[in-house]
# Entry
Amino acid sequence: MSNGGEGNPIIRAIKESVAWRSLFRQPYPTTSRTRALAVMNNVFLHLHPVRVKRHAVRYTYTFCLGGISFFLFLNLTVTGLFLMFFYVPSVSQAYQDIQAIEASVAFGGFVRNMHRWAAHLMVLTVFLHMIRVFYHGAYKPPREFNWVIGVLLLFLTLALSFSGYLLPWDQIAFWAITVGTQLATYFPIVADEASFFILGGIQIGQGTLLRFYVAHVIFFPLITAILMVVHFWRIRKDGGISGPV
Ligand code: HEM
# Structure
């Protein structure tokens, strides 16, 4: 069994140094107990479970659809941050900014397309992930709470897509959001108030663009990130991925 290079004097010296000891509090893990300690004593490794069931790492069990959704979310965060440097949510400037991103920003068109494709793909992978979970009956106790968190994540993914759609402020965005936000006028009792709340005015305009921008870059991503942390934490607390054992 490997002893983590203890035979090599240089590696041994590094591992006995104060810097190394301050990061890794126990010797190279060689037993079940020291392996569990190594995971629990390190904030980064702590995110991983100490043990994983064999079926849970079989690709064809989950198709990694949840993992791919998370990866796409990270991708969207990074590419979205890039786009924020070149985009101003103003009705007189937004469309020009998008054209400038496409035409004159280095890698602008590439990053914008990554953002768009990742957004479309995320809707698809989250949906397929939900179908996979349903097919395995993983919504049943003890995972029913995580199913509810998942439903919220699905709605948030759709909300992120919908709110981002208006931002280019081109004709297709303007009219798609006009149609979409008309739904609010069918609200029972508080139709006018609901419509005003979503549009930030009585019709789509600067108020709507700013509202959608703030929701798209701060509100929805923040809530999504928090719920993802709860989602992942629950998977561990519910005994790892569901399965035959
Ligand atoms: C942003 C959206 C989501 C992300 C990033 C996400 C992420 C994940 C990941 C990484 C897993 C581990 C297994 C796997 O990869 O399949 C998982 C499991 C799970 N997810 Fe999601 N998920 C999301 C949405 C949903 C939705 C929409 C539902 C259901 C409505 C859901 C319900 C569950 C349940 C119940 C489990 C445990 C499955 C099992 O034990 O087999 N998740 N999720």
